[in-house]
Amino acid sequence: MADQLTVEIIAAIKNLAQSENGGRIPVAIGEITADSELTSLGIDSLALADVLWDLEQAYGIRIEMNTADAWSNLKNIGDVVEAVRGLISKEA
User: Model pTM greater than 0.70?
Assistant: First the structure.
């Protein structure tokens, strides 16, 4: 079972995916999990930037813009969760 951080990030990404896709999640996706690919949800780099901004606000973390290239390696929701988890632990 997913931990609270994973559940919250899945919800944020699901909401964004729905807004990017006219309120729908592509039928082929089914349930969104940590293994769900961001591109399969219709999330491009601009949408990912929106998600990252929201996560900064929600968790009081700072994502340095000069490290944005590192964020381009995020392929699935689990990658996002682990990156955010790492930043949260640095802030603590």
Answer: yes
